[in-house]
Amino acid sequence: MAASMYIVVEGEDPGFDTFVNGRLLARNEDALERLALRLGVRPLIEFFSADENSMSLLIEEGAGDQELIRRLPPPQWYAAGDGLKTVRALLDALQDEPQQLGSEGEQVLSELLEYAQVLGKARDREMRWHLAVSWR
Asked: With left for phi above 0 and alpha for psi between -120 and 50, is residue 94 left, alpha or beta?
């Protein structure tokens, strides 16, 4: 099963496209977390939150227990500017040396650029967000 980390913006329709593939961000999450900690910013995974809809999808895909849904805390929402600070720090650190992340570094950099665009739009509209994970 391949994981994908994607952005969820609070509300029904943010008025802009929030889609970012996020597969390479998920695959390189450990390295990105270590890099974020070295840079003194909050790791992306700390913006993770699960809601009932995303957990239901996971359970339908056989990746969880129905009982988990009843015990889920309410979704957590974060200021888009906080996420943008992390993404920009990662971009700055990887811009000249994406190979720090191995052969997928350029593609990770591309997904981070897309995250920056989405989070910038969310920040400009004063919308909150969280990171979600899907397994396919």
From this structure: alpha
